[in-house]
Amino acid sequence: MSGDLKLNMIMGAGLAAALAIMGVRIGADALYHTEAPEKPGYLIEVAEVAEGGEAAGPEILPDWGTVLATADLAAGEAQFKKCMSCHQVTDANGTGPGLNAIVGRPTAAHAGFAYSDAMKAHAGPAPNWTYDELYHFLGAPGKWVKGTKMAFAGIKKPEDRVNLIAWLKTHGSAGYAVPAPDPARQPGAATTAAAPAEGAPAADAAAPEAAAAQTPAATATAPTATPAA
Fold first, then answer.
1. Which of 10, 71, 132, 192 has the fewest CB atoms in 10 Å of its CB?
2. 181-194 in b/e burial notation, b at 16+ Cβ within 10 A?
3. Angstrom distance (rounded) from CA 224 to CA 216
4. Which GO terms fall under molecular function for this chain's record (predicted)?
């Protein structure tokens, strides 16, 4: 009889311990419970995008009259290593066209290279590889010229593109004109133009923008003359 009592006591103690452990686990789950995401992965915050797929807010293109003089040519040459599997800075074509004198050169017109129909069509609105045109294209070739053969994701950092364009200019395009500095392209210019001075009439703040809309900026695009290569 005493043996049965001891066995019952042992079993009861074991059951109590098991119940206690279960209670602790249930309590911990309730305290630290987190909802599982609908889709597994990491949350990456991105800049808010406006309708049409472009980042909200006006884009300020580089002030070529200022940035080319201070560009890092060594850094630009380093950026060109991303292009070397398809391009050379000579007249010879490879997977891509030769890039000698590319800055200012006519679009889709390098001798001996079979351009895509998309690039040929793009030459209509963009007849030359101006500074701005190269800047846009190098940022996202497939987005700027939809259907291009160039399977390259692009160079995202503005300073990297500026350095690369400055370096390319030293290869056959040294004579391509550099526009005068443009204050409208300086960092913060868009914010300054959009916000009137405290106490100033709204009409005064809008006047420069209206004038800019009526008179194209002389330096909006670089000259289209092609340098001698």
1. 10
2. ebebbeeeeeeeee
3. 16
4. electron transfer activity; heme binding; metal ion binding
For residue 39, what are the CA distances in angstroms to 42, 43, 44?
Answer: 9, 10, 13
Per the structure, the count of domains in the chain is 1
Residue range 74-105, pLDDT digits in tens: 999 999 999 998 999 999 999 999 999 999 99
- Residue 54 is assigned to a structural domain of this protein: no
Calpha distance 217→66 (Å, rounded)? 16
CATH number of the domain where residue 124 is located: 1.10.760.10
Q: Residue 209: inside a domain, yes or no?
A: no
In a domain, 120, yes or no: yes
Considering the entire predicted model, what is its pTM? Answer: 0.60
User: What is the Cβ-side half-sphere exposure of residue 64, based on CA atoms within 13 angstroms?
Assistant: 23
- Look at residue 42 and tell me whether its pLDDT is greater than 50: no
Which residue, 131, 132, 108, 110, is CA-closest to 121?
Answer: 108
Residue type, 35: E
Tokens of 139: 């940022």
E-assigned strand segments in the chain: none
Among candidates 138, 163, 171, 157, which has minimal Cα distance to 73? 163
- Dump pLDDT digits (tens) for 161-183: 999 999 999 999 999 999 999 99
